[in-house]
């Protein structure tokens, strides 16, 4: 009797697993179609069908790499993302450190003030105005600063929760040894924040790399176009050539995919820890 | 005294300044400019004249403009419901038992890591009149319902909502998985001993303990839905005949026409709606879990 039950249970789990994999088709098929059509001729890619390419047109990748300015767009995206992520990590850790350790009434309100940024929509019209006032319109620095400002709330939020879980005895011991604020932060606290830092870097890198709206409003200069903008412009120019559009999509997704594969464990666990416990 | 020296206030200053000047200040300025006729074409230079609530009056007395606001709310609500219901069920499915659950989770989480613009582009191709979706429908004998999904007025909005749901369901799943893992197994063991069925356990243990996760997802999805831009911009550009125009696409269009005052007014409307729904979401879900 018990054996029968176990067998049935095993079978049930196998069926459940198979069904789950069938569900993944909803996610995987769209990407498969893009990959398949990237290798086709423009005529064969007209319908974006799921059929295999009859010949592999590797030249598509070369063509897009050259006329799509892929290296330059990668560079532009990289400059914006890496700079704003670095700035925000530095500003947010040290800020969250003070807010979490010195819980005065003012600091509590400052924390709430930051949290508002998790929900507020950005007002792009007036952002452009402010950028013009500072002479930052159509400059990379302007976008970097804006990205930094926009990702600070989530970073502070995640760091704040984590720093709360680090015992203050560590600080006290360091104070006894005569360490000051800078010393405590840089040699004790910051190294301990590594797991959150990895998460913050991943999430912010992805969100800035993916962003299209801000460069669209703030960075009209085509020479400074980021990869996502480049894909969009390319789509406008080569509407009917889905094979080439597919190739640009692959170029745009590839870096993200690499970051995701390396960091998915941290991304998911960081989202989890920060979101529910915080 | 000690704290002053150790936890220096100036540590917090850079983050505070950047955030205040480049995020909060524009939001506040938006309130002011929404009350002006700031229009870069009409006026020489960029002079903005105070006109009170005229922009809002114009929006709320023009049916097509008011419709955009309701459509945005509708878009936000419908996508939120689907993302959560499907995301929650996926989380239950991938929580335990399956051998390949980690791989499955990563696959479903992947879309939310990609740019909405890229996803819009991919689905734009799948929903073309001769695209994959119609090929699929024809091959399973449903050829008579094929339409160019994104350029037909009756299907365009639904299709954009589908893409948005597809994009973000995995994100919701991950937040729910987190919530599920925080529930102490003792509750389930006790319930099993008392003879509670799986369904009863779901209703009486799982769902009540998931309220914090529901709250987070509700908040994030609503604010995301109300702010939707990239996906619409690339899928339909607000068309056909304005049937997918949402607040943020109209903000962009008014901005393009240099009607900054009007554009700012729409920005304020997004802000107010997001704030209202945010408060409701918090209120609804902010119950003490242990009671």
Descriptive keywords:
heterodimer, A: 278 residues, mainly alpha, 12 helices, flat, B: 291 residues, 14 helices, 70% helix, globular
Question: How are the SSEs ordered, and which strands pair?
Answer:
The complex is a heterodimer of chains A (278) and B (291).
Chain A: H1 2-38, H2 59-67, H3 70-101, H4 105-116, H5 124-133, H6 140-164, H7 169-176, H8 181-192, H9 194-210, H10 213-218, H11 227-237, H12 242-277
Chain B: H1 2-6, H2 13-33, H3 54-61, H4 63-95, H5 101-109, H6 116-126, H7 132-139, H8 153-182, H9 185-193, H10 198-209, H11 211-226, H12 230-235, H13 247-256, H14 260-285
Helix pairs in contact in B: 2-14, 3-4, 4-8, 4-11, 5-8, 8-11, 11-14, 13-14
Notes on the structure:
The complex is a heterodimer of chains A (278) and B (291). With 278 residues, chain A is mainly alpha-helical. Chain A contains 12 helices and no strands. With 291 residues, chain B is mainly α. Chain B is globular and about 75 Å long. Chain B has 14 helices and no strands. The relative contact order of chain B is 0.14. Classes of the chains: A mainly alpha (278), B mainly alpha (291).
